[in-house]
Amino acid sequence: MTSTEQTSGADRRRWIALAIVMTAAFMDLVDVTIVNIAIPSIQRDEGASFSQIQWITAGYALAFAAGLITGGRLGDIYGRRRLFLLGVGGFTLASALCGFAVDPAMLVAARVLQGGMAAMMVPQVLSIVHATFPAHERGKVFGLFGGVVGLGAVSGPLLGALLTEWNLFGLEWRPIFLINLPVGIAAVLLGRRYITESRAPRALKLDLVGVALVTLGLLMLLYPLTRGRELGWPLWGHLLMAGSLPVFAALVAYERRKAARDGSPLVELSLFRVRSFAAGIAVQTVFGVALGVFFLVWTLYMQVGLGWSVLRAGLTGVPFSLAVSTAAALSVQFLVPRFGRKVLQAGALTMGLGVLLYIWESDRYGLAIASWQMALPLVVMGVGMGLIVAPLTDAILSEVPREHAGSASGLLNTVQQMGNALGLGLVSVVFFGQIADRLAPAQVGPAFVGAFQHALWWVAGVMGVIFLLMSALPKRPAQHVEGGGEPVEEREPELVS
């Protein structure tokens, strides 16, 4: 075989590997949002209590967020392909358990398992990309990844609506989980063949004390945020959230000693000395807050306030999805190499403009607003989000050493989940806080429309904060600094047979 044929074969393998890991990432993103649409059907068919319904979504989110940093570090230590395949396999098994759950308690347990397996799978996606593609190609790859993120975020509700309304084989809501089975099995089989193993160049050990501290701190912070509104914001919830701060302080102190002692901390604190990473983490957290607020209040506005069907609400989001995917691909491939961080700042302003336009349209048309009238603000918002999501990932990870790719990826995903959880917690203040406890049927629509507009003013304000934070990002990601996207000299990752 000639060297040209070998290069072509290796190139083909890595693009197939990219398709595999991005399919798995899409499966996780869809699964986060698809369940919300089917909640009424699950409650009706299974007789689930309100608390159990809350835990079907909260259990997944908590297990996912609490395990992300650990999952990323396990990939650095034991191999990213190995952890990815274990995560996909476990996620697929948990999906089957969800689909065949015989009662609400089994469904809740399966969802917790599913979240834990996602925490093993998801950090490896960015780590595998980081280890497989050279720096000058990652911009294009992260552009594709940003498109997948945008598509997954808004296609989940549409797919959930279709699967639930079709009632395939009389299974009601169960296909929303069972659809993961063929996708997961294919990802495992193809991943074994096409994904190249990689791990940190030097031997690392699992930091069990760090695992315990980070899990405890995240649970103390996220559990009250997730359940606070349902429980009426009890005092113990506030005490838990306040108590998470000294736990995180203890984690930082311990990780510093751990790094000095044997160089194997769970959280690589040296990453925060990389300006692009530290600034990007701040942007990602606040951006997660905006998305956490918007997507939940948007769904409530359409389905409860306007009284739209699940399917109509899902179809209304299609222009947003297309705009995000298109803008994400264009931003990294063409705009960021030329204009750098100005593209991200333009994205924040554009998304904020779309939010303001949505407020104006909602106020003008009230309960009579049509799906096509929402298309313009949704497209503007989608373009803004697309200009942010892909280059932001690129900017955050561009200067991260490859040996810490798993840890960085885990931190990136964790702060995004924390931001989302904080946003969901704020919904009780910025949305439900505007709605009276008891409403006559005729008052529900106007009350929800008014609360939606109030919440969107908060989202617009958050986008302004994001614009300011972006000034701390590097003017250009590292791979674009040295002349027109030419390859930058860098060390290859250690490959493991």
TrEMBL record:
Q: A GO molecular function for this record? A: transmembrane transporter activity
Which residues does the UniProt record annotate as the domain Major facilitator superfamily (MFS) profile? 17-479
Q: Where in the cell is it found?
A: Cell membrane
Please tell me one Gene Ontology term that the record gives under cellular component. Answer: plasma membrane
Ranges annotated as spanning the membrane: 15-39, 51-71, 83-102, 108-129, 141-163, 175-191, 203-223, 235-254, 274-301, 313-336, 343-360, 372-397, 418-435, 455-473
Where this protein primarily resides, as one coarse class? membrane
Asked if Membrane is a keyword of the record, the answer is yes
Domain of life, per UniProt, equals: Bacteria
Region span, Disordered: 478-497
A Pfam family of this chain: MFS_1
* Keyword entries, A-Z: Antibiotic resistance, Cell membrane, Membrane, Transmembrane, Transmembrane helix, Transport
Membrane-topology descriptor: Multi-pass membrane protein
Q: Basic and acidic residues bias: where?
A: 488-497
Query: Which InterPro entries does the entry link to?
Result: EmrB-like, MFS, MFS_dom, MFS_trans_sf
Matches recorded under PROSITE patterns: MFS
Biological process according to GO:
response to antibiotic
Name this protein carries in UniProt? DHA2 family efflux MFS transporter permease subunit
Which source organism does the UniProt entry give?
Answer: Streptomyces bauhiniae
Q: What is the lineage of its organism?
A: Bacteria, Bacillati, Actinomycetota, Actinomycetes, Kitasatosporales
